[in-house]
Write a structure and sequence with these properties.
The complex is a heterodimer of chains A (394) and B (518). Residues 187-191 and 378-388 of chain A have low confidence and may be disordered. With 394 residues, chain A is α/β, with parallel strands linked by helices. Helices cover 34% and strands 21% of the residues of chain A. In chain A, helix 6 runs parallel beside helix 7, helix 8 runs antiparallel to helix 14 (333-342) and helix 9 packs across helix 10 (230-243). In chain A, the strands form four sheets. A seven-stranded parallel β-sheet of chain A has the order 13-14-10-15-16-9-17. Chain B is an alpha+beta fold and 518 residues long. Chain B is built from 22 helices and ten strands. Chain B has helices at 13-22, 39-48, 101-113, 124-149, 165-169, 188-202, 204-214, 216-224, 240-254, 260-274, 281-292, 298-308, 313-323, 340-352, 361-382, 389-394, 404-439, 441-446, 449-459, 470-482, 500-503, 510-513; strands spanning 5-12, 24-28, 32-35, 61-66, 74-76, 85-89, 93-98, 279-280, 386-387, 495-496. A five-stranded antiparallel β-sheet of chain B has the order 7-4-1-3-9. Chain B has a three-stranded antiparallel β-sheet with strand order 2-6-5. Chain B is elongated. The chains are: A alpha/beta (394), B alpha+beta (518). At the A-B interface, helix 1, helix 4 and helix 15 of A face helix 1, helix 3, helix 6, helix 8 and helix 21 of B.
């Protein structure tokens, strides 16, 4: 479990936040901080500590996505005391209507006011983590609503542990209001690169992204390709199939308000292509433990996860990250979504486009942090299958 | 230039926030007067007096620069019989100074909530120097501890040529290393890196020739799709002879001894550590075993040191506590014993080793403690930095220079304290040993004879570096002969990582090692 760290490895500030929260008498506490500051980690450690201090209490940890629920459930802390904690999505929690002594709610900004009120009523003590600036769902919750509703004690974390200084710069250029301080021990390998790649056509872009993603995927270190919409996922998968001369994949059908990727994933498995859609309960992170896999995910479902190599294709100037109607209702939502997408990387980030210009949100990328290159050009960085990097190395 | 002195106190984040919240801080001998002309040494003294929270992060500490008359705001806790312990009022502070720009950013929010205006991080250079020094020193300590855990001899890094060592220590990057994307997390990476060092040593032309002769490209291509990182890299490797031949070529062309096998082993395990993967202990021990079979006995020690210094503290100490669990009486034996294989490996090595090269834990600890303490006292004395609580207790001006007499007295006191500590420690060890002898007799009998002998020497104050007698040597050999074969091959692979201590401990036959620890 990559993002999990033991208590003794937490930073002084995280430890301070934990002891501070434990010693407060308020019925709710809010841990604020940007992506990668360890909010969820602190929340999980807090859950363990409160549960030890109150052995007969009932404890529930609520996440917003299925992927995060699976991730939390696989942490050593939860695994060793499976019966002690209930880990579930907020939809399940609200559906069950069961009351708990301690409730730990992650990604609070993605919950609506009504839902938060219901969660509060089902909690003895409520501990929340999240930041309204990172809101990526269309809901009515604002920071003031949280304060008015819960009157929480607030702790703020601002050190982004997994982001390298270059990634921090890029993230900040997309969301300038983000107050990020790059982690001291963030990976600074020579391979930690950020690239903005341009292709002549969509097909070239897809082929390059796929080859690069699979070349970088390792057992336990999958690559991920992120898309703003499900339609983009299918388009990309279709291109990959053509490129690999495989059968056309089935289009995921709508099933009770969500797309069903069962056949889609089965298709690629049968075709021996290590491509898996991950999200909404489809695919599993453990699939990649023993073989190299490339995950396809939406920006939304990738929230809370991080990967060694992240690819964000299709960012042409006419790319629609958020539908215009939603953007009108939630100004800046596209910025926040792209911010979430780029901050999923803990080492390599590849953004690509195939039009004449890249998306307007990428116009201020810092030149000293990003390498701009042409796909098929001589300054290509890739570990693609055709080159001889390994020989050049020695 | 006029000499300027300031009184500094390094606080942890929680101490700082508590101080601001409560208005007074309890502390003991931590205020250090530093001289602006000797800022680096002075700053180091300030940090050495700060609580050791094991963090070198910029947000973990903050400095308090005190007013010249800070002692006015102290309240000595004499009633507790501890004149050096005091409450220090917040009024004594001139300003709070983050250790760096980054620290300022990290503490900005807390400072804002506490209504504190932070000063400029004017000690950033000194902080970076101290942190780098501490990071290096801790890495060195980890490496040595790992070697000791494995029961190996002291590493001899001077046996590695100076144009190779920086690559192994991570001080220098191999050229084109960033191009090897496909090699990452494959078994090809270590071999490619070793071949790269070979190329640097023998030159481009020779490298091309040898690459062709030995089929180096083919080796890399074969290993490219091999992700089995949990297997030994040289043990029983069919490429071992290639490594040995390349070492011979280096010897022939450059006249230096470079073990390509060592390079491969070190690069392989460093690759795993840097990829944040778990190192397979079983594989590592087998590789070290293979290196140990070489004529150069320092190979395994050097490899273990170079790998150990890059592991995390907790990884190394977990193994160390487990192997020397008889020393750590407070440990819960039920939570240990996951690394029987490393214990056996360590014992086996210690049995093989001549006694004067043996790294006995208790004696080593005492010796190192004594060395560290003397070193610190010496450094402090040289830097003319002085703990000024004594002055403030007696009402002296705290900016006075320490007199020679004071320095000498301090030195004498420290030496006496050191000696007393040593005696106390010996007595304590003896008592513990006696207790242990009675309670754990049956367990103790199983322990190797060599270790027992050294314990006895230590208790009676004998020099443990004496040569063993022939009888003792024979006894050692007998002991090692009757021991069962190296058991690694029959055991399940064991790997370790950050979470391992919590997740895996206790699963593995605790009774076997359990003993009374009352």
């Amino acid at each position: 479990m990559r993002w999990w760290v033991d208590f003794n490895v937490l930073s002084e500030k995280q430890k301070w936040a934990l002891s501070n929260i434990r010693n407060q008498f308020q019925s709710s506490h809010w841990i604020q901080g940007f992506a990668g500051t360890g909010k969820s980690l602190v929340l999980l450690h807090l859950m363990e500590q409160m549960s030890i201090a109150n052995p007969n209490s009932t404890v529930c940890f609520i996440t917003y996505t299925n992927a995060l629920t699976a991730l939390v459930a696989s942490t050593p802390l939860v695994e060793k005391a499976k019966n002690r904690f209930v880990i579930q999505t907020h939809t399940k929690f609200l559906g069950d209507r069961k009351k708990f002594d301690f409730v730990f709610l992650d990604e609070v900004q993605d919950i609506g006011v009504d839902d938060l009120t219901k969660i509060k009523n089902l909690s003895g003590k409520l501990y929340i983590a999240g930041d309204p600036d990172q809101k990526i769902y269309d809901n009515d919750l604002k920071a003031n609503d949280i304060i008015n509703l819960l009157n929480p004690q607030i702790s703020e974390l601002n050190e982004v542990f997994r982001l390298t200084p270059r990634l921090c710069k890029v993230a900040q250029s997309i969301l300038p209001e983000a107050r990020l301080v790059a982690g001291l021990y963030a990976r600074t390998n020579a391979n930690a690169t950020i690239h903005l790649m341009h292709a002549n056509s969509v097909d070239t872009e897809c082929a390059w992204v796929w080859k690069e993603a699979i070349a970088r995927a390792r057992p336990g270190d999958p690559s991920v390709i992120l898309f703003p919409h499900h339609d983009n996922i299918y388009d990309f998968a279709y291109c990959v199939s053509r490129f690999l001369a495989k059968l056309t994949p089935p289009r995921p059908r709508m099933l009770r308000n969500r797309r069903d990727y069962t056949l889609f994933n089965a298709h690629f498995k049968n075709q021996d292509v290590p491509l898996v859609y991950l999200g909404s309960g489809f695919g599993s992170l453990t699939d990649s433990d023993y073989k190299p896999i490339v995950y396809f995910m939406t920006y939304h479902s990738a929230k809370g996860l991080d990967f060694k190599s992240v690819f964000i294709p299709f960012l042409n100037d006419d790319a629609v990250i958020v539908r215009p109607a939603n953007l009108l209702k939630n100004p800046g939502l596209d910025r926040r979504l792209l911010f979430v997408a780029v901050t999923r990387s803990r080492e390599n980030l590849f953004i690509s486009y195939s039009g004449s210009k890249c998306h307007y949100l990428l116009s201020n990328l810092p030149n000293d942090a990003v390498v701009k290159a042409e796909i098929g050009g001589t300054n290509l960085v890739s570990g693609n299958v055709d080159d001889n990097d390994e020989e050049e190395f020695f | 230039m006029a000499k300027k002195t300031v009184c500094l106190l390094a606080l942890t984040l929680s101490e700082w926030l508590n101080w601001v919240a409560a208005g007074r801080l309890r502390l003991n001998n931590r205020i250090v007067q530093i001289d602006s002309q000797k800022e680096l040494e002075g700053f180091a003294a300030v940090m050495y007096h700060a609580p050791d929270n094991s963090f070198f992060d910029d947000g973990a500490y903050i400095l308090a620069e005190l007013k010249p008359d800070w002692s006015v705001y102290q309240e000595v806790l004499e009633s507790f019989g501890a004149a050096s312990v005091m409450w220090l009022g917040l009024e004594s502070v001139k300003e709070f100074i983050p250790v760096s720009e980054r620290g300022a950013l990290l503490l900005k929010g807390d400072a804002h909530r506490a209504r504190v205006a932070l000063g400029q991080p004017k000690y950033e250079n000194a902080w970076n120097a101290w942190r780098n020094n501490e990071t290096r020193s801790r890495a060195d300590q980890r490496g040595k501890l790992f070697v000791r855990t494995l029961g190996l001899k002291e590493p001899k890094l001077n046996s590695i040529p100076s144009d190779v060592l920086p690559f192994l220590l991570g001080d220098k990057k191999l050229p084109n290393a960033d191009k090897a994307v496909k090699l990452g997390s494959t078994r090809a990476l270590a071999w490619a890196k070793a071949f790269s060092v070979f190329g640097i040593l023998v030159g481009e032309e020779e490298k091309v020739k040898q690459a062709k002769d030995f089929g180096l490209s083919e080796i890399i291509k074969k290993l490219l799709a091999d992700y089995s990182m949990n297997c030994p890299i040289i043990y029983k490797s069919s490429y071992l002879c290639v490594a040995d031949n390349l070492s011979l070529v280096i010897k022939e062309k450059k006249g230096i001894n470079v073990s390509v096998s060592l390079l491969v082993v070190v690069f392989h395990y460093l690759g795993i550590i840097f990829a944040e993967k778990e190192v397979s202990l079983k594989a590592l021990l087998e590789d070290l075993e293979a290196l140990g079979e070489n004529n150069d006995s320092a190979l395994a020690s050097n490899a273990a040191y170079l790998i150990g210094r890059n592991m995390s503290d907790i990884q190394v100490t977990t193994l160390f506590y487990d192997v020397f669990s008889d020393v750590f009486l407070f440990l819960d034996s039920k939570s240990l014993s996951i690394y029987n294989n490393i214990s056996n490996y360590s014992k086996k090595n210690r049995n093989k080793m001549p006694e004067h090269e043996h790294c006995n834990t208790k004696d080593k600890f005492q010796q190192e403690r004594s060395n560290t303490k003397n070193k610190l006292i010496h450094e402090q004395s040289n830097a003319e930095n002085k703990l000024i609580h004594e002055q403030s207790d007696t009402g002296h001006n705290n900016q006075q220079e320490p007199t020679n007499a004071e320095n000498q007295s301090q030195q004498e006191q420290s030496n006496a304290e050191n000696q007393s500590h040593q005696e106390h420690s010996n007595a304590e060890n003896k008592s513990l040993q006696e207790q242990s002898n009675i309670e754990n007799k049956s367990q103790y009998e199983q322990y190797d004879a060599e270790n027992k002998l050294i314990h006895e020497q230590s208790d009676t104050g004998h020099n443990n570096q004496q040569e063993p007698t022939n009888t003792e040597k024979n006894h050692q050999h007998e002991q090692s002969d009757v021991k069962e074969e190296f058991p690694l091959k029959t055991q399940a692979p064991n790997s370790f990582g950050l979470a391992k201590r919590e997740t895996t401990m206790g699963k593995d036959k605790p009774e076997k090692r359990s003993k009374s620890k009352t």
